[in-house]
Amino acid sequence: MIQNEICKIVENLLEIDSVSTDKTLEELEVDSIIFIRLVVECEQRFHIEFEDEMLLISKFPDLKSFIEYVQTRAGDGIE
């Protein structure tokens, strides 16, 4: 399931034990460097490409919206 995989990626990048999808990326302390690492990891893992205008952390109010975007790009639908 894409949501679980993305949560694991975020946990690894942030070196934390668990993550809530309702938290904002700012609350999770995702900075611009971590955000780009997250994007690259998702692009590689799910064989997708982020649209240029979506390469801004401000486009995603929370982790859930990021996950939904990846699911849509991957053709997996929203869970």
Q: Kindly, what is the distance between the CA atoms of the first and last residues, rounded to a whole number of angstroms? A: 9 Å
Radius of gyration: 11 Å
Could you spell the SSE succession in H and E letters?
HHH
Structural class: mainly alpha
Number of helices: 3
The count of strands amounts to 0
Topology readout:
Blueprint: H1 2-14, H2 32-46, H3 63-74
Helix pairs in contact: 1-2
Describe this structure in words.
The structure is a single chain. 13% of the residues are buried. The radius of gyration is 11 Å and the shape is globular. The chain has 79 residues and is mainly α. It has helices at residues 2-14, 32-46, 63-74. The N and C termini lie close together (9 Å).
List keywords for this structure.
single chain, 79 residues, mainly alpha, globular
Concise synopsis of the structure shown:
The chain is 51% helix and 0% strand.
